[in-house]
Amino acid sequence: MALFLPVAVVNGTAMPGYEVGGVGWLGTFDFQFGWWANLALLVALRLASDRAPPGIGRTAAMTILLLALTVDATFWRQVTNEYQTLPIEAFGAGYYLWFASIAAGVALLWWRCLAERRRIAAIG
């Protein structure tokens, strides 16, 4: 959903999520690593969907990774293209929905991890 919503307004023009998602990996060259949280989220969702949910260690590691990458995205204040660096004038709904999707992925991962721990303790 965040792909189709405006993420940021630059130079009076709204940037849709698919545009930011398509070129976001280039932010790595500008020391902006938030885009990589998308890949980490896919890994977290894969772990949460496994038949055997992840243990507390993997869940904590994924949470720390996602938190670090997402916090990095909160410092995104400019967009650089081949000609110039432009400041972000405003953030759109897609930006905030992206944060919510990361939080939901982390919550799902922890829910699966703790549910499995409770199941094992009940068998115990």
On the 0-100 scale, what is the average pLDDT? 91
Strand coverage percent: 15-25%
Which runs of at least 5 residues are low in confidence (pLDDT < 50)?
none
Gyration radius from CA atoms, angstroms: 17 Å
Helix content: 55-70%
Q: Please state the structural category.
A: alpha+beta
Taking the alpha carbons of the first and last residues, their distance comes to: 42 Å
* DSSP summary, beta strand count: 4
Overall geometry: elongated
Topology pattern, helix = H, strand = E = EEHHHEEH
Number of helices: 4
Main beta-sheet strand count, sense and barrel state? 4 strands, antiparallel
**Order of neighbouring strands in the sheet with most strands:** 2-1-4-3
What's a concise summary of this model?
By secondary structure, the protein is an alpha+beta fold.
Characterise the protein shown here:
By secondary structure, the protein is α+β, with helices and mostly antiparallel strands. The chain contains 4 helices and 4 strands. Strands 2-1-4-3 form a 4-stranded antiparallel β-sheet. A hairpin with a 4-residue loop joins strand 3 and strand 4. Helix 2 runs antiparallel to helix 3 and helix 3 packs antiparallel against helix 4. The longest helix is centred in the C-terminal third of the chain and has 31 residues.
